[in-house]
Design goal:
mainly alpha; single chain; 6 helices; 162 residues
Length: 162
């Protein structure tokens, strides 16, 4: 094909296609941003409702006399799953680090003594007064997500509830 014989592309047509593309893209982005704003607004409203409900529940719980002295008992099976951070891992490592060269009974006794000594020094979430009211909320039946949001707003780690 000899390029000198090919007619030029019509500039009006190219500009029309480009304008149509820009208009459709802008309309799509406007609709998308409107939908996103509506969803964020609805989510914000829902969060405010949850915070209000949580504050009301918090006020109701604090109005009940005697809740300050409530003690939580945790079975020994749950102690390791509720402990804070690497202390539980250190306890497990020390349990498995008992030397196999000594007698079977001696090894088990040493492991039990170390475990008991470590669990006495471990601060569990159940014993922490900052988390006591959240554990009480779980027992009362407050939704876990609401409790997690309240803990986050107060700067506490919500993963420790589990």
């Amino acid at each position: 094909i000899f390029l000198m014989q090919v007619p030029a592309i019509q500039q009006k047509r190219t500009v029309a296609f480009l304008n149509q593309f820009v208009v459709h893209t802008v309309q799509f982005l406007n609709r998308f941003s409107t939908v996103c704003e509506e969803k964020l607004s609805a989510l914000s409203l829902r969060i405010q409702q949850i915070e209000t409900t949580l504050n009301i529940l918090d006020a109701k719980l604090s109005s009940i006399p005697g809740l300050e002295d409530v003690k939580f008992e945790v079975s020994s099976a749950n102690v390791n799953s509720v402990t804070n951070g690497p202390v539980a891992q250190a306890a497990a490592d020390q349990q498995t680090a008992v030397s196999p060269q000594s007698g079977q009974n001696n090894t088990q006794e040493e492991g039990l003594q170390k475990t008991e000594a470590i669990t006495e020094n471990v601060t569990t979430v159940a014993k922490d007064p900052r988390y006591a009211r959240y554990l009480k909320m779980v027992q009362v039946g407050v939704p876990v997500m609401a409790i997690r949001n309240k803990m986050i707003s107060e700067g506490l780690n919500p993963d420790l509830l589990e």
